[in-house]
Each structure stands twice: as structure tokens, then as C-alpha cells.
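pls design
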């Protein structure tokens, strides 16, 4: 089975399948999720994705033909069978499982386990001949703390800053992280303002069954006594005290660049240790690593586990 990395994703020419490709004129293109670096650059092409991803793509300007495919519902093509499995990254995010005469392949797109609570979960197939996995945080310095502990830190930060008469702000990516922080804040019973670029995306989450608590579109005049979620640098208010919420908050130097008062390392990507543990359970025939700062580290660990592996130099990191 030929596997060709391209600028954005992967092409399987023998099967006439593209995985997160920016363009393909002949065959089937599967979009794993609606983050900008996985969306097709050709906004009018024909693609396959989950119904939530379709809604998010439309909201973000995609105007092509979309074939919606539910999780666990196989789709037959001329040369293969395609099934989508929940990836746990953001709403609708899917791993693509391909069965053909050449064997089986699982492409994770971006994934996370334990899954974000505002996703459909992380439910991969048991194994595959070939696994193509992201490893955005594929270094031993990245080991995520328990989600509930991080959610408690988010709530405590908001409560403390509000009690001091200031505005707690959370620097977040607009799709995925904003909605997870809203989920974390919901038990406080406060109203949160979200940046305009995220507001309609939050409504799509709710449409697909993920309530996000009390939130409103950002209005500078109504910010008093409320929390705020926005991308870094998008809003500047008097008495605003921002916290960086990102896997990159693990790195003090990276956090310092944002000027945030606090850092909370909540990521929507799988960490180094969970990735190795999952691969160890799965025991694929071969693992290809992508979207990673240093593939040699994971490759060495996989060698020690007796799992054949390689690196594919495509993609970029999409998290703030």
C-alpha cells in the first residue's frame, strides 16, 4: 500500500483515498476534523467526514460537497472500506480505518485519550497493520495531569480573580479548547463571554448534545463580573487577568511569550506516555509518526517495544 505524504495530509494512490488532503481530483478525501490545518485548502472539493465535522466545516467557510459518515458505519469505495472511529480531540474528530486487499490502516488525525468530555470519546479499532499517528506532544516532558484536577484549577482561578474584582480571561484556541473550558467553568454558575469567532462554534457543540453552561458573545460593555475566553491577543480589557490554557503551558518560556498571569496545561492532544501505552496495547504491524517535534524520541521507544516504525515529515502543530 503506497503512502505519499503531501503538504497537508496523505495520499493512498492505489486505493484512491486522501487523508486530510488539501485537494484531490480523483478519489475519496476524508477530513478528520475541522481545525484549520486539517481542512481542505480547496473549499469546494468533495469530502467525507462526521456530521459534527460537516457542521463545523460549513461554519468555517467550506462550500464543497460533504458526504456525512457516522462513527462505526462502514462506507464502501471502489477499492476499500472506510470506517470512522471517535478520536477524542474535538467535537466530531475521527480516526480513519481503511480495510483493503493490501491490509488495514488506521490514521488518527489529531487524537486524545483520555478523551475531552465535550467529544464523542476515544474509541479506536483493536489493531491495524499500519498506524499513522500524530505525536504533537511526543516527548517525555509532556505528561498531562488528571482532567478533573485541571478543570478544578480553571474554576478556582476564575473564582479567585472575580472575588478580587478583576476579569478572569482564558487564552484558548477557538475550536475545541474554548468549549472544554466552558465545560469546566459551568459548575461555577457564572456567565462567560466568548470571542465572536468561537460563539457560533459553541452553538454547534450544543446542537450535537454537549451543553456548555452559561455563555454569551463577547461585548466589552458587559464584561464586568464575568469570565472571558478568547485567543491570545484578541481582547485587551482593563483589569483583565489572563491564564494560558494549552499543552504548551507546560513550557515556562512558551507561556511567558503570552504575558499570561497563570498557565494551565490542558491539551486536546495525546501525551507521550498515553500514546506509547495505547500503541503497546494495539500492537500494530508498523507505526508511522507525524506532527511531532522530534520523531527520534518516540521511534527509539517503539524500537525498545519491538514495534516497527518510521517518521513522516508532514504537518504542523495546530494548538496555541
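designed seq:
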Amino acid at each position: 500500500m503506497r503512502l505519499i505524504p503531501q503538504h497537508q495530509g496523505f495520499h493512498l494512490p492505489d486505493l484512491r483515498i486522501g487523508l486530510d488532503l488539501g485537494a484531490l481530483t480523483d478519489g475519496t478525501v476524508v477530513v478528520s476534523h475541522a481545525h484549520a490545518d486539517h481542512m481542505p485548502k480547496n473549499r469546494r472539493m468533495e469530502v467525507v467526514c462526521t456530521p459534527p465535522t460537516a457542521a463545523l466545516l460549513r461554519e468555517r467557510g467550506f462550500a464543497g460537497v460533504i458526504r456525512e459518515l457516522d462513527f462505526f458505519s462502514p462506507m464502501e469505495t471502489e477499492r476499500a472500506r472506510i470506517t470512522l472511529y471517535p478520536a477524542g480531540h474535538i467535537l466530531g474528530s475521527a480516526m480513519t480505518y481503511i480495510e483493503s486487499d493490501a491490509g488495514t490502516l488506521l490514521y488518527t488525525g489529531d487524537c486524545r485519550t483520555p478523551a475531552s468530555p465535550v467529544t464523542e470519546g476515544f474509541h479506536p479499532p483493536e489493531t491495524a497493520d499500519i498506524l499513522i499517528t500524530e505525536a504533537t506532544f511526543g516527548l517525555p516532558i509532556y505528561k498531562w495531569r488528571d482532567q478533573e484536577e485541571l478543570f478544578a484549577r480553571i474554576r478556582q482561578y476564575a473564582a479567585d480573580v472575580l472575588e478580587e474584582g478583576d476579569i478572569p480571561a482564558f487564552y484558548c484556541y477557538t475550536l475545541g479548547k474554548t468549549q472544554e473550558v466552558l465545560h469546566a467553568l459551568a459548575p461555577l454558575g457564572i456567565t462567560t463571554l466568548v470571542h465572536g469567532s468561537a460563539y457560533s462554534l459553541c452553538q454547534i457543540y450544543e446542537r450535537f448534545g454537549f451543553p456548555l453552561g452559561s455563555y454569551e458573545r463577547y461585548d466589552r460593555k458587559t464584561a464586568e463580573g464575568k469570565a472571558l475566553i478568547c485567543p491570545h491577543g484578541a481582547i485587551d480589557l482593563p483589569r483583565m487577568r489572563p491564564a494560558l490554557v494549552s499543552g504548551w503551558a507546560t513550557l515556562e518560556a512558551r507561556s511567558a511569550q503570552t504575558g499570561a498571569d497563570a498557565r494551565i496545561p490542558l491539551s486536546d492532544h495525546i501525551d507521550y506516555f498515553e500514546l506509547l501505552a495505547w500503541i503497546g496495547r494495539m500492537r500494530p504491524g508498523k507505526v508511522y509518526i507525524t506532527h511531532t517535534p522530534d520523531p527520534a524520541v518516540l521511534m527509539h521507544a517503539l524500537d525498545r517495544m519491538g514495534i516497527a516504525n518510521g517518521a513522516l515529515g508532514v504537518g504542523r502543530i495546530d494548538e496555541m
